[in-house]
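Dear colleagues,

As part of the handover before I leave the project, I'm documenting each prediction I ran so the next person doesn't have to rerun anything. This entry is a single chain, and its sequence is reproduced below.
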Amino acid sequence: MTTPVPYFQTDDVTLYCGDCLEILPHIGKVDAVVTDPPYGINYEASRYQNARFSGVIAGDSKEFDPTPLLSLSKETVIWGGNNFAHRLPAGGWLCWDKRTNERADRILGSPFELAWTSKRTRYKIKRLMHGGAVNADGRGIKRVHPTQKPIALMEWCISLVKGETILDPFMGSGTTGVACVKTGRKFIGIELDPAYCEIAKQRIEKALADRKQAVA
């Protein structure tokens, strides 16, 4: 097998552009996996009210198989685990409560989301307002991915796992990587779509520059 060449690399961050199933065998064990993969629900952003994106999520047209992710680390967090729970071993659950009111629920489509975690005794809730169709990280900050999670949410996930190096095999726009930079963890990210890989690179570069400036 040909060793994959990083799309972007620093001392603390390594990004790959390609199929994670082909790249993961070259990475080996990591301290933790924190990821938001395709849920297997045939998501199409353009069918939702006030959608700012068109098209579909790559790989979302068939049921997601989490099996390749389960042997990579001692600690794992997989968002959307309720959609393929029958393929997961016994574990705990994280809940993102994004409810503001019932009217907002109708706009957002879902008042909460669930993540499976490999730690059986972990049941926690993060209450964090969702930015809806316009943004994920606050007013005036545009979304760059149709299923983009808030940076604060991924920082919370990372705070719950131990170890130095975090892997996200379904990196998307790089939110997990930005959260790792902001919290002092090392990050390995993999993304299939070259356009999103470039967006992730740019967002992570900015986070690295902001961190460097803060300690200067």
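The radius of gyration is 17 Å. Strands lie at 8-9, 13-17, 32-35, 75-79, 92-97, 112-117, 123-127, 165-168, 186-191.

All the best with the project,
I.
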